[in-house]
Amino acid sequence: MILLVIVARVALARSRMRTLAVLAGLLAGLLPLLAYNAHYFGSPFLQANAAGGFTDTFFRPDAGSFLHHLNVYFGTGDLSLWKYMPIVLLGGAGIGFLDRRLRAERRMLWGAIALHLAYVLNIETIGGCQYGPRYLIPIVPLAMLGLAPLLAWGKAGRRVWPAVAAGALAIASTAVNLVGALKGTMFCDTRAFAFLEDLRSLAGLSPGDFPLAPLCLGLAVLAAIGFGIRTRLARPKTRTAS
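The structure corresponding to this sequence follows.
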């Protein structure tokens, strides 16, 4: 929610003429959460932690907890990004390579990421049953915006390592999270590397484990058709010689 407010504030400051469009998009993005809360907890504004009586997700600064969480997410801890999503670390570093004309956007991205980390590093819990660092998911799309300027910087200077590093880390991140998507995200022994544990049992999967597969496949086909039609219509028409 904090990140949504920051991004909306920046968008509104950039273009006052689009205020209604930004607010409408913000509301549309919140609708699934509001509907979920209303269905399960009786109120669209009652969050899961409050409904369950959990207090370990509330902001509670503590030096020991902060250092522990820092190691959990960015060091050698159980849910380290180095193990589950290393491409995010490269993308976050790549934000520093944004063009000088985009200083405000760079500050906004780093500020939003820092604000979110300031919260999740100062709560009691790292999450219960999960596959990877789920509390860091909100910063993933923001950090990934740094890949483009990093690759552009490498290409401009004829440096090979940015593309090689991005490719290797992207493959590793995709493999780890694909296994998690296939096996399920409820992995309760966070001390073990969930990827290796689930990888051993992939052979036991069956079509019955994916009841929504036909629906997802149908939506993917429709999206591909729609994208193809849009691309075809957007092509400039070439004039034939008479």
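The two ends are 60 Å apart (CA to CA).
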